[in-house]
Specification:
two-stranded antiparallel ribbon; 38% helix; 10 helices; five-stranded parallel beta sheet; 8% strand; globular
Amino acid sequence: MVAVQSQDDIRRVLSEDGKVLSGARVPEIPRDHLVKLFDTMLLTRTMDERMMRLQRQGRLGFYMTSTGEEASHFAVYGLKDSDWVFPSYREQGVFFWRGYSAADYINQLYGNADDPTKGRQMPVHHSAAALNIVSISSPVGTQIPQAAGAAWAAKIAKKNDVMMAYFGEGTSSTGAFHVGMNFAGVSKAPVVFVCRNNGWAISTSRDKQTAAKTFASKAVGYGMPGVRVDGNDVLAMISVANEAIERARAGEGPTLIEACTYRLGAHSSSDDPSAYRDASQPTEWAQRDPITRFRAYLDGIGVWSQEMENEMLARHNKAIGEAHAHADSQVAPPVETLFDDVYEELPWNLREQKEWLMEQERTKSPHSH
C-alpha cells in the first residue's frame, strides 16, 4: 500500500454491473460467507426502510439510514472476534455481521426496558460490548483517539488484537482526527481507520472539508499508508481492509482507508437534502447500488437465486415485525437503572440519591402500559 495522490487512484474488484475487472484479484471468500454477506446487506437495507417508515409515522423519534453505503460496512469481515470496532452512526451492517439481533436493534431505538443500553442513548446510537463494539457517540471523531489508545494498550499488553474505527469524511476536519491519527502513526498502533466518504457531512460538501486531493492522501502526513477504495464494491472493501488488518496485526502500524461511496438518503430523519444538493446526484449514484452490484456478481458465479433472496427478505421482515411488536409493547427501563454501571460499588452520596428517588411518586411514562 502507498498513499494515494489522485482522484483516479482507487481500488476496485467489480465493475458497476458486477463483473470482475480485468487484472483484479478477487478475495478468497467461502461460498457460505458470500451468502451471509449478501444476507446481511439485505437485512441492513430492509431494517432501514422499515424503521424510517415508522419514524415518519411518528412512532420513532429519530432515525438514520445507510442506504447506498452498505458495502463499506464490511471492512470488518477480516477481523477476529477478539478485535474491537469503534463505529460511527451509519454502520448498521457492522452490528448485524457481528451478531447483533433485530430485537436488540429495535429495542435500542425505543429505549425500552430491553434496550441493551438501558435507554441512555438516542436512537441508532448502539453499543454491544459482548460483540466488542464500542458505543456510538454523536460528537464526530471521539472514536478515533479511543481506537488509537485501545490499539496502543493492546500493543503494550502484547495482545494480537486489531482495532477498527469508522468515521465520515467530515470528521477529518476535527481535532480528534488529527490527534488520533498522529498518535497511531507515531506509536505504530494496530488500528485500521475507515473514512466513509459519502460526499456530505450533513449539508457540508466534500469540497468544503479539505483542500487535499483525497482524504486517503492525508495518511502520508501521519506516517501511514493511505488507500482509496470503491466503497460500493464489497469485494474491494474486504480486500483492502484485509490487507490493512494483516499489516496491523503484523506490527506494521495503522492504515487509513478512504471508502468512496454516497449517501442516497438524508443525513437523518431530521434532514432535508433537497435544500443543499442537486436532485440528480442520488439518481446517478443509485445506478451504483452496492447490493445490485453484489447480486449481479453472485448471480454470475451461480451463488444467487431469486428464491434465495425472497427467502432472506421474508425472514428479515418476519424478524423485524416480531421484534418491533415486542419493542413497542415494553415499558421504559426501571428508573433505578440510572445508577447502574457507573461505579462498581455506589458511593454513599449516590446511594442516598437512589433511596430518595425510589421514595418519590412515579409519573406515568409514555412507554408505560
